[in-house]
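S1.2 Input.
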Amino acid sequence: MAYAYWSIGKHEEHAVFDLFFRKNPFEGEFTIFAGLEECLKFVANFRFTKTMIGKMKKKFSWPEQFWSWLGTLNAKGVKIYAMKEGSLCFPRCPLMRVEGPLAVCQLLETTLLCLVNYPSLICTNAARHRIAAGKDKILLEFGLRRAQGPDGAMSASRYAVMGGFNGTSNVAASIEFGLACRGTHAHSFVTSFVSVKEIKNREIDGGKGVDFVGKCIEWRKKFKREFTNEGELAAFISFAQAFPKRFLALIDTYDTLNSGLWNFLSVAIALEEIGYKPVGIRLDSGDLSYLSKECRNAFKMVAEKYNVPHFAKLMIVASNSLSEDIIHELNRQGHEIDSFGVGTNLVTCKSQPALGCVYKLVELNNVPRIKISQEVAKVTIPGRKQLYRLYNHEGNPLLDLLQEAEEKVPKVGERILCRHPFNAQKRVYCIPSKVEKLLSLVFDGEIKIKFRDVKTIQAALYDDLATIRVDHLRTVNPTPYKVSLSSNLYSFMHKLWQEGVPI
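S1.3 Output.
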């Protein structure tokens, strides 16, 4: 397309593109915009190097003048207006408005879509898991091994935390993005042991002169559980020796209730005697509701019988192909789980693997453009637009209002006619108590904003989510959030629509 524009002399014409989506993912009624920082860094560094052009010359036989022009391109003439990263957003609302030379803006399209589609999908998926789990549960991203390649894995970790997760098992992502790093050992660590005789050092840091291995075996005897799997006990002792302050054991390698649970408790109470506080257990198979309740009962029994009150609140982490739906089902069944480790269904967005953002020309040389389709949902909203969020007196968003960029800003207390983009009968008067402008200048030849860290964006997102009516957020049959056009934009759009369709 860039060559076609150049060859007919349209490449420098001033264009305006909107980046938006048409439908919320996961059969829900909200989406979270993510990926803005990566988009702006890409645009700021946009150029074709001699090496890149050399490789393309081997594929395409275009004139040398075109290659020379391509080598001069950058984004100095580009402006981008965007919503804040981590913002709640809704169908047909521009997440980004890109302005500048037609060919350059067109060349940005694919990368911008790539850098917004997946991050926004992951961020939204993570937020839905957070809503399912509740604000007090710990959510951990465990999807590195199942993600779509290393780039997908790094993005998944970053945007899962942005969307509401507490941490990740991805060490590289935790370092790169400043995320909390959390994880446990695998089943292979347990199965690598067969006997306590394999443990070379019987002591533990902080317990000099104390036979820590002997203590663990002694407690197993006190619990009258001498026939638990000895290799598993050896593994737990060894892991506790390595991580005495962070001892959290995976207990389902052999038999969760008859072996793993009691091997863990034997090591945990031995740690307690030396002065360490064990963390808890992870369940990775079986009936998670039932098993978590049985483990909690055992913790409470040990806490009371042996006077270690905090054992009653030892952490129970659950994994095993968890998803938003499974977490909701566990809530219905009742459980004693404190933390959910979610992997495959989070990072692959298994229930909907793509968001479907699009990038459409809406103005060229100050003349609005419209794309018309027999599918009404694919008709675009023409022209440069500004986006406002209107709130009621209780601080809840009522609707998002799209206006022509030159229209006056909606005023608090002013009655505003808000119209459905496609249905003439759907319209409402709104008197906002608060008006929030959603699109701001973020790039004008250079990046114009300071980037926020992931946790700061997460905190702002959950402040926003707290204002949204719960019926917009519910899993089953959520209420659609209204996206409206001003009366002027509605009339202009439908005039262009009518003029564009032959009689």
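S1.4 Remarks. The chain has a mean pLDDT of 96.
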